[in-house]
Structures are given as C-alpha cells and as structure tokens.
C-alpha cells in the first residue's frame, strides 16, 4: 500500500442524488474528521438539483464525478470506487450515501479497530436522527466464528461480521482490486450485501460501535418495511445473488435465502398495497431467474472518464 501503516491514506466515496442539503452536511462532516481524508470522491448520479454545485463549492478536498445518467447506488459506488482507485492511490476506501453524516471520530475509530490486523473491512454503528439504532443498517454477525476471531474482535471493542452496509463501510483498497467493484446492474438494494459478503468471504471484518454515523433517512424503517414498487429490486437482486454470485457458500445461500423468504412474507403481511408487491414479486422472480447482471464495463459504458476508470480497474 502507498502509505505507512501509521497514517493510512483514506479516500471517501459519496454517492449523491437530489439531496443537496444533506450533501452539504455530509461534506462538512467529512472535512471535520479527526483523521483527515486524502480526498472525497463525490459521484453525482445525474441529480436535477444543484448537488454538483454543492460538491464543487466544497473545495479542493472534493473530486466531483458527474454522471450523465442515474446509475443507482450500485452504479454510483462502482464508478466512484473505480475513480478513487484510478486517480488517488488509496490504502482504504470509505463508502457512504449522501444522507450519511459521520461524527468527527467516526473514521479514526474505524482505523483504530483495524490497525495492525488482517481485517479488510469495517462498518460503523448507524443511528437515526433521534439517536436510536437504525434497523436498516444492522450488520450480520459472522456465523460459527472461531473463538480466536471473536476474542480478537472483542479486544478492539468490535464484533466479527459477515456483511455490512454502504452506510459507512471502510474497505481495504488492495482487496477491492482483488475482488472487483460492486455490481452496477443491481441499481439499488442488496448491492452492499452482495459486495460486503464477497469482500469478506474467507477474510475478516468488524463492526465497530465506537465509530458512529447518523443515517438521515426520512423515516426510521427496517428492511421489512413496505418498499412499494422497489420490492422488484429486492426480489430480483436476491435471486441474482443466490443464483449467480460467489459471495456466499452453498450453506450460507440456504441460510440467508430462508431468512429472505421469511422477511418477504412479513413485508407482504404488513403491506397496505399487496397488489404492488405481487407485481414486484412476479417481475423480480422473472428477471432474477431468466437474466443475469451485465459486466460493469457494459452497464457503466458511456459515462466519460468514469467509464474509463471502471474499465482500467476491472481489467487490472
């Protein structure tokens, strides 16, 4: 890696779409980190507000990547991570949405937890605006973790995990180069589940409660809250993941697949518009079983310099 272990070079990647006021907060919070960031790559996903201007106004810390079309959270992170790797020589990438406001010590706490270890990814404690735990971003503890790994994590005030979310995920840059980028065709939902489990398959990750970020969603909702038409992406992407991805073992696919079915049933039972969910299920099942995600070079083509970065990183 390019920097010494004592002072790792961290590049934040923020995906932005039509939340300019929150983006202002996020960029101010990133500039105020106790462990300073080397750069912040802001991916503007074809916003129709002035998010791009907000990023430009933040000064030289920000590298703005303006995309000509909305590629969703999955495409935004894939493009932003590729640009960060291609232009900025990071040791670590720190990933978050434009409604994720880190506390001043959030990055320092993540780095302290991974310092001197073989940990390749770490996630923050995610709270809502009222200080309560945000159920949307609960990490999955590592099942059947060894005593040695559990004790090593506890000594750092952390928990061994099998997955984490893009709402404050720190990931080692050399591992990103090894496993590749998030799958852009997921667009939204389960892109971070697939990616974090891919990164952590056979490797170690931590949940770090001392690192705190505020996820400023409009409501405090969990993963089984009624998603409306977006249920399509939940179904399609889970089927893509369980059928196509190598991020999980066969046993894990059975375990998490059963959990997903139970959550879908709860979502359907609680829904006020089951016809929408039935339509999402039908289309999601069709596309999840009959299609597969395209390579990022295809799904992220035509984005100018960002496309070149994606191709350069994935070819390498």
TrEMBL record:
Pfam families: Glycos_transf_2
Domain of life the protein comes from: Bacteria
Gene Ontology molecular functions: glycosyltransferase activity
Residues covered by the Glycosyltransferase 2-like domain: 13-177
Pathway the protein acts in: Cell wall biogenesis; cell wall polysaccharide biosynthesis
Region annotated Disordered, chain positions: 285-316
Entry similarity comment: Belongs to the glycosyltransferase 2 family.
Name of the protein: Glycosyltransferase, GT2 family
Species in which this protein is naturally found: Agromyces cerinus subsp. cerinus
Lineage: Bacteria, Bacillati, Actinomycetota, Actinomycetes, Micrococcales
